[in-house]
Write a structure and sequence with these properties.
- The chain is α+β, with helices and mostly antiparallel strands and about 300 residues long.
- It has 2 domains: about 170 residues, Ribosomal Protein S5, domain 2; about 120 residues, Alpha-Beta Plaits (2-Layer Sandwich), CATH 3.30.70.
- Helix content is about 35%, strand content about 25%.
- It is built from 10 helices and 10 strands.
- Strands 1, 2, 3, 4, 5 and 6 form a 6-stranded mixed sheet that branches.
- A hairpin with a 4-residue loop joins strand 5 and strand 6.
- Helix 2 runs parallel beside helix 3 and helix 2 packs antiparallel against helix 4.
- The protein starts with 11 loop residues before the first strand and ends in a 6-residue tail after the last strand.
- About 45% of the residues are buried.
- The structure holds cytidine-5'-monophosphate.
- Cytidine-5'-monophosphate binds next to strand 2 and helix 6.
Length: about 300
């Protein structure tokens, strides 16, 4: 008999919130080819969930709507296992035990979709195993491991509203940033991040000129966000024609802002409140039952 596990069946659970790029400006390129970015980032309450428990040997299991895709591609799964292995190595180097562990990934987020699923899973693994193994490693060591796993992993470690610069390693927290009601939409077509970067027309776009003050309210932030862009959206739209339709559908539900996150194809709409976001998700689902729509709220700064 096959037992289907869920994250809640485990001793320790950890959330892996979806990462939302409210804005992303490409401002330059490093000698190694990585692009310099200014990113306004927040995190959704909706995300993947992971479960952890001590085990006689290392194990990894999957469940959730998007787990079949991962089993095929194993991209996000591999990032979880890479995070486990790199943290274990650092633990051993510092004289800690890092015994075998069963990790379960409940994959609720679409794969390769610009909302950091794999990065969020890797960051959640670093946070949870630090607790499970009782590690006290310098935060610099954990951040360095996170950056080795991917440019978005350090910000997913924090999972709070922030501005990230460089390739994502330079992080400024926004403790007064508000929570937003949001709809996430995805046409369930994966978009390749390197391909999107390759198709970029300009790599020296203006950086953020932010007019935000620490105590800006929700509507002031919406105005600020509306004045910013995602520079990866035009090249992603040429690779994935469904993005234009998706964006227009979300917009038609009365969103205050509609934009693509990361390198796509996920688009988000910001709404006045969760009731409106929920109604929009229901309506979008009836228009395109084959796509992914999810109403959620983002995590406020300082929580
Ligand atoms: O860091 P991550 O593995 O998510 O990046 C995937 C790919 O996206 C990189 O190999 C690189 O081609 C591109 N990328 C980039 N500049 C960034 C982040 C990613 O060119 N700042």
């Amino acid at each position: 008999m096959t037992v289907i596990l869920a994250a809640d069946d485990f001793d320790l659970t950890e959330e892996a919130p979806a990462k939302i790029n409210l804005a992303l400006h490409v401002t330059g390129q490093r000698a190694d080819g990585y692009h310099l970015l200014d990113m306004l980032v927040t995190f959704a309450r909706h995300g993947d969930r992971l479960g952890f428990r001590a085990s006689a040997r290392d194990e990894f299991s999957l469940s959730g709507r998007f787990s079949p895709l991962l089993a095929e591609e194993s991209a996000g799964g591999n990032l979880v296992l890479k995070a486990r292995d790199l943290l274990r190595q650092a633990a051993h180097d510092a004289g800690f035990e890092a015994p075998p562990v069963h990790i379960h990934l409940e994959k609720n987020l679409p794969v390769a979709s610009g909302i950091g699923g794999g990065s969020a899973d890797a960051a959640a693994t670093l946070r949870a195993l630090t607790r499970l193994w009782g590690l006290s490693l310098p935060s610099d060591t954990i951040t360095a491991i996170a950056l080795r796993l991917g440019a978005d992993v350090p910000m997913c470690l924090v999972s709070r509203p922030l501005i990230a610069r460089g390739i994502g390693e330079s992080i400024e927290l926004l403790p007064d940033f508000p929570s937003f009601a949001m709809v996430l939409g995805n046409p369930l077509v994966g978009v390749s991040t390197p391909e999107v970067f390759r198709l970029l027309g300009r790599k020296d776009n203006p950086p953020f000129a932010l007019s935000w003050q620490a105590k800006s309210g929700r509507m002031q932030w919406i105005e600020t966000i509306n004045g910013l862009r995602n520079d990866l959206e035009p090249p992603a739209r040429t690779l994935c024609t469904q993005i234009a339709t998706l964006s227009q559908l979300i917009d038609s539900q009365g969103a205050l802002t509609t934009r693509m996150s990361g390198s796509g194809a996920t688009c988000f709409g910001l709404f006045d409140n969760i009731e409106q976001a929920t109604a929009a998700a229901v309506s979008l689902h009836s228009l395109r039952p084959d796509w992914y729509f999810q109403a959620t709220e983002t995590i406020a700064g300082g929580t």
